[in-house]
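Supplementary notes for students who missed Thursday's class. We covered one full example, reproduced here. Read the sequence, then the structure, then the short commentary at the end.
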Amino acid sequence: MTNQAAYAILTKSRAKYGKRLTPSNYRELLSCGSVAEVASYLKSHTHFSSALEGIQESAVHRGNLEALLKGKIFADFAELCRFERSIGEHYFEYLLLRGEVDELLNFLRYFNAGKASEYLFALPGFFNKHTSLNLIGLSQAKTFHQVVDVLKDTPYSRILAPFEPLDGQALEFADIEAALDRYLISRSMEIMRINFIGKTRDKLLGLIAFKAELDNIRRIYRAKLYYNVPVDAIRAQLINIRHYLKKAELEELLTSSDAPQMQKRLAGTRYGRLEKGMNYETIDETAVRLQFNYCRSLMRTSGEPAVVMAATVVLFEVEVENVTNIIEGIRYHVSSDEIRKLLVAASE
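Structure (token representation):
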């Protein structure tokens, strides 16, 4: 890749981030009274306008709107990947992989709730044109066996098959999510190791490991707080990777007697120093904020095009999560002050 091409990738990625939602945008979104008003505002006043062109605001629902916003991110960065093939071919493979796992989990949430057919309305059209997964076929599945059969020519069939529930038993969604996440991380690492070198490879691997470790922390904390899950069962759901945590620190978190003890132990790690005053009642949002800060630093300081692109994708995913939290809050009549607490970097 030429220096000119590298500079172009850096410039285009950072320029996209420059179009992010502003504090004023967030204030206006928080003042909306319905999902239709949110859709109308995004369509008229933000960089999401092209994704929402032609929609009927009064008919749009939460799942459909979220799919359109995610599709906009995927389309923008697919375009950037095509701009420079030396980066784009391999990074697009990674984007597609992440999208596939995300959509499978999204579908399985509908399936687990007995609403598989409704997934069709939340299916991101742009992504569906690029993946080889038969997402429409999944939405027509009536049994878990049929789900596995639809996926028979993909790696996901092998991953999901062992989780087919016996008659009358519920789907072990947490175990399935952990298995898919392990595959995602393993395959992502493989893509980065094979196709990138030097600092670029190291930073991309670090970004993936950072997210994986945060996901492990979230799993451990939720297990301690809500489910009283045995240590060995928690360990079986973790991704076998560390970033900031030392092996002994991870073991201490796992063997904590309860959530409060885990909080104290986590405070003594690098994560506790990164996020002082960590709010454990919203640990998911805290983890997202840590990832946001990590990626924002990479986006601003890295000189590696693939790293800047990867970090910027994550920053926009956080933005979509912010908008989704606003939509959910409005839908369930949560006050704007309470919704605002869930938003990451919305006041910057």
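Commentary. The chain has a mean pLDDT of 88. The domain at 1-83+311-348 is CATH 1.10.132.50 (Topoisomerase I; Chain A, domain 4). If anything here is unclear, bring it to office hours.
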